[in-house]
Specification:
By secondary structure, the chain is of the alpha/beta class. Helices cover about 45% and strands about 10% of the residues.
């Protein structure tokens, strides 16, 4: 565990910890954190991975700052233009992978084309989906639908024979797992992810309230 020693010493018991004096707030801008808080736990854990002292860095903190720390301390894989946040999400027929879920608010068509390759590998190696197909998140199934980004990305994906591209996917079909890998920019992907989270949570809460509202319901529940 990495963080301020005066806090960790009271919380972690016998677990080993490494002192990292600076703290990054959830509302802080990644660029400012990268300039001013290189002694924070976010940067310290990424340095540990870069030096070989750790194999994995895990954080529940500021996503943008963690991304900046990983880029500066660990670096990108050769050939990767932009990092992307890949999120395995629940579907009716098993999990699908959504990316980018928030790393890049703005992206170019070539970035989305590369996300398709990254998402395919992630789905195969991490989620265990054999020969995953790839869908592009858009407002309609037709290739020309969407903003300026999506038709251009669609053309690149459709011309790439090394991935199993199935075309556009509408957000209403995400939970049906119409595609194993769903590609979008980080702005749309983050909104889609949070909408799914909120919808699922609200549905479960409503069901729980209704089940508990009557004696037969409680018995059935």
């Amino acid at each position: 565990l990495y963080g301020p020693s005066d806090v960790l010493s009271e919380l972690v018991g016998d677990l080993p910890f490494v002192h990292a004096p600076q703290v990054v707030g959830m509302d802080e801008k990644p660029a400012e954190v990268a300039r001013e808080k290189r002694d924070s736990s976010l940067f310290a854990v990424c340095r540990a991975v870069a030096s070989g002292d750790a194999d994995v860095a895990v954080s529940a903190g500021n996503t943008g700052a963690m991304l900046a720390a990983a880029l500066l301390e660990i670096g990108r894989l050769p050939g990767v233009m932009r990092p992307a946040i890949a999120v395995p999400s629940p579907g009716r027929r098993g999990p699908f992978v959504l990316l980018d879920a928030g790393a890049n608010a703005d992206a170019r068509p070539e970035h989305l084309a590369q996300f398709a390759h990254m998402g395919t590998l992630f789905a195969e190696e991490i989620v265990g989906i054999s020969n995953p197909n790839v869908g592009l998140l858009s407002i309609g199934a037709e290739a020309e639908k969407g903003n300026r980004l999506t038709p251009e990305a669609h053309a690149l994906l459709a011309a790439d024979d090394s991935i199993n591209f199935i075309g556009n996917v509408e957000s209403r079909l995400l939970l049906d797992r119409t595609a194993d890998v769903v590609i979008t920019d980080g702005f749309v992907g983050n909104m889609a992810l949070k909408l799914l989270e909120g919808t699922i949570r609200t549905t479960v809460e409503v069901l729980r309230d209704e089940i508990a509202s009557t004696i037969p319901g409680r018995l059935g529940g």
